[in-house]
Amino acid sequence: MTASPLESPPLLETENLVRVFGTGENRVAALQGLTFEIHQGESVAIIGKSGSGKSTLMHLLALLDQPTSGVVAMRGQVVSDLKPKQIAKVRNTTFGFVFQQFFLNAHETVLENATLPLKIAKVPKAERHRQGTEILEMLEMGDKLKAKAINLSGGQQQRVSIARALINSPEILFADEPTGNLDSETSAVVEDILFGLNEQGQTLIVVTHDEDLAAKCARQIRIQDGQIIEDSVVNA
Amino acid sequence: MKLRDIFTTALANTMRTKLRTFLTVIAVVIGAFTLTMTSGIGAGINKYIDAQVDAMGDTNQVSVMPAQTMDANVGLTAGEPQEYDPDAQGTVSDFGIPSMDEEDIEEIEQIENIEFVDPVIFVDIEYLETPDGTRYTVPSAGFASEQSMVEYAAGGPGSNAEDAYELVIPTSWLSAFDIDDVANADDVIDQEVIITAQDLEGNAETIEATVVGVAEETITGAGTSPIPSFGLTQQIAEINNTAGGTTIPFTYIQAMATVHDLATNEAQIKADLEEIDMVGQTVEDQMGFIGGIIDAITWVFNGFALIALLAASFGIVNTLLISVQERTRQIGLYKALGMTSGKVFTLFSTEAIVIGLLGSVIGIGLGSVVGVVGNALLINGPLDSVPGLTLYAIEPLALLVIALVIIGIAFLAGTLPARRAATKDPIEALRYD
Ligand SMILES: Nc1ncnc2c1ncn2[C@@H]1O[C@H](COP(=O)(O)OP(=O)(O)OP(=O)(O)O)[C@@H](O)[C@H]1O
Ligand SMILES: [Mg+2]
């Protein structure tokens, strides 16, 4: 299923990726020179202890942040060469994000939150609602469509944030601890959805410190202190 | 995001912090209200003046004065004593105001297209006796030329013939003829009255005069007292200025010239008058002056309103800056999910526009209601003696301009916070607490 790296440029690749936060005493080198490739259709788990740099790496791969030095390229195209508008478009239509802190708009409804990427993409309201309802029902949130996000439990919020990430049928899904707040049963539902989509060709990049979830991915990249200490293909 | 979505999102965001929005909007409302009131009052009064000018639209009269009257230092000529010159006599008289004599009047009469010159003469009527024998005082008789400036409830202006002794009375004088209703004003026409005037020695002389018209009162004050015709005025003046068979030559501070087709000949008449050191003013010239003053006052108040709006715009800046601060995360999320900086800018500018729109709609609505109701209360209440008065008029175009100006100011105020929102870095914004 994975395209050969020799045939086409990898979906995402990094070269000597460095991200430093702050200066002087506050200086933190979150990523210290990472080089790897991710191909279309892969499922990749980024694992590591808290503070090891997982979220930082995900943000860089997702074009949300700029590296201090080094390169991120998408399909062979160096990302820093892209115009802000092009990057915005890629984020809106090609990527899906599940943020570690969900970042829902507290005063908007579940449906409004889940369909925000479609709203940004100028999809008409009726169509937004149709797609949003469908995906929220899949995540067992069908009875909460009109509820305000602020009134949801942590697990429910997480599912809304997953619905929002999937709503634009992204080619690449970035998920930062997507099951962190879910009970085992709901976790299973979410995992089924994520890996089901991956089987249909969607590239999945999961940040987690849940070894069980990581083990379900075809590839694990283990990070420690901003460096890759292991890059293994388990389920190959 | 579609424009409609941007607008509804902006509206929802502004409505989320109702109190804050309300307070910000109030400042805008004050500005909008003031602008609506002042422009409405200006429009109303100007409309009234226009109506008054239109009412005498058929007048072909030009008021003529010596040119020096227009000089600021008339009557205050300080400095060296002037040697007596018999020819210069008559150029300065009544209370130091330059005046005209018969010769001047004849000169004016000779100007092309001037049909008739009616010098303004102050006459002193002792009393007016109605057919039932009652005598009424006439504190200040009108000028003959006013006869063609007023509107008539009945009859019309008297003739300009020297031997026609005719009189126009105001509607308020109908009661002296036992007529209680203006609708019956016609009954007074052709009634004979006796006018008594004193000569310089205090001897009373009487003239019989015929009532020919009933005048409505106007803003200029014309038509508020009885107006003798040209011939009657001359006759009374002659009595007033006679002592023992000798009549003092008249001097006039002003004359009303009737012009053939004033609309086409105005420039020529004015130029010819200038040549003989006279100034001619049409009714429009004089009224236009009042209109100019009203416009100036209107603009002063508009200036205050704009200052209020300037203050309001800082309120908008402040409110939106707080809003941008509070919603840093939301902005980060929008950008992370692919919203362009341009759209973020538009979103926040739209919030400013929403505030401007709310403020102008409320302020203009309130101003219009207060203006219309206040106008109705005043002209039907304390001011109902002024016929046809309007103090407030709604001019849709002016209101639209006011709304656009306010929305424009709100938009400008919004650009600073909107720029701040647009340039936020998504990750920084998302991490913001
Ligand atoms: N914007 C920032 N400014 C300063 N330091 C930062 C910033 N973002 C991350 N860091 C630091 O970089 C390091 C890596 O952080 P990151 O969020 O990537 O960790 P993580 O692996 O995702 O941890 P967790 O599992 O707890 O989510 C941490 O030491 C963190 O404090
Ligand atoms: Mg993290």
UniProtKB/TrEMBL annotation, chain A:
One of its GO terms (cellular component) is membrane protein complex. Pfam families: ABC_tran. Belongs to the ABC transporter superfamily. It comes from the Bacteria. Keywords: ATP-binding, Nucleotide-binding, Transport. Residues 12-236 form the ABC transporter domain. InterPro entries: AAA+_ATPase, ABC_transporter-like_ATP-bd, ABC_transporter-like_CS, MacB-like_ATP-bd, P-loop_NTPase. It comes from Enteractinococcus coprophilus. SMART domains: AAA. Signal peptide: none annotated. One of its GO terms (molecular function) is ATP binding. This is Putative ABC transport system ATP-binding protein.
From TrEMBL, chain B:
Residues 21-223 form the MacB-like periplasmic core domain. This is Putative ABC transport system permease protein. It is found in: Cell membrane. It is a multi-pass membrane protein. It holds the Pfam family MacB_PCD. InterPro entries: ABC3_permease_C, MacB_PCD, Macrolide_Exporter_MacB. The chain crosses the membrane at residues 21-45, 299-324, 344-377, 397-416. Keywords: Cell membrane, Membrane, Transmembrane, Transmembrane helix. Belongs to the ABC-4 integral membrane protein family. Its main location: membrane. One of its GO terms (molecular function) is transmembrane transporter activity. The keyword Cell membrane applies. One of its GO terms (cellular component) is plasma membrane. Residues 303-426 form the ABC3 transporter permease C-terminal domain.
